[in-house]
Design goal:
alpha+beta; Ribosomal Protein S5, domain 2; 4-stranded mixed β-sheet; 4 strands; 38% helix
Length: 110
């Protein structure tokens, strides 16, 4: 499931925790137990670059979110991945490894 509403993003930013890694900042927040599966949102601001760079960064973050969706311990977790400028020119494997380590440090994955 995806986070699409701005209030959802603000809830994660304001009420959640964060972990900083090389290519992204991972914000996360526990939600009510009634929800099925973790929800991910991706963000790439102008700081990342022009439209082409931002779209590529969001594609990399969405691909990483799909890869880790089944590994998140809590099924009621909201996670927002915010791209950092260092993501430019990185492969999907590098981004996935970096974010995977951040998720592990945060205790969200095994």
């Amino acid at each position: 499931m995806k986070l699409t509403k701005s209030w959802q993003f603000h809830e994660v930013y304001d009420g959640g925790e964060r972990v900083v890694c090389d290519y992204a900042v991972v914000f996360y927040r526990q939600r009510s137990e009634g929800e099925a599966g973790p929800c991910f949102g991706v963000v790439a601001s102008r700081r990342v670059g022009g439209a082409v760079a931002r779209n590529r960064a969001k594609r990399l973050l969405r691909e990483t979110a799909r890869a880790f969706a089944g590994r998140i311990r809590s099924p009621a977790m909201w996670v927002v991945l915010v791209a950092r400028p260092a993501i430019n020119g990185r492969s999907s494997r590098e981004v996935a490894e970096d974010i995977g380590q951040a998720l592990h440090r945060a205790g969200l994955t095994n």
